[in-house]
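Hmm, what's this shape?
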Amino acid sequence: MEKKEQENQHPAIKGTLESSLAEHIYVYSPATALDQVEDDMRQWYNWQPGVLFPYKKIFDPSVPTYYGGLTTNKAHFVLVPVDLIHARRRNYLRYLAKCMGMKDPAQCDAYCEEAMREIVENPSPRSHPAFEADALARQVAYWAGLLSYRQEPQTAGWRW
């Protein structure tokens, strides 16, 4: 097992956790999901397939509770709860902090909080570990891959 972890660039999530995370991920046909969002957001989803963006429905533009995005081949639209995205982002930040030699859990947590605060205050693109963590957390392929842990048949609306 140690060799497998060395081969991966980033830490893996345990199988039991993957199974429970998969229960909270939804897949729709692109038409079903995109018909419910504003034109501006529809363009972003189509322009950058493979990346999750905040998902707001036209009829309920409240704070997004999901991130959504098309798979790279634009065959499916994946919805992931925002809490899972934030948790995965923090997991990557902790991993990056450990790679930089931070061993103290309190120091690592403080670094993660500061990094997230920095990108919220100034989201302009620049070299920052928090941006790498955010990009990795918002990859549609990862979340779509978790669906293999679910054993549910596809329905007419493509909601699994």
Q: What stands out?
A: The chain has eight helices and four strands.
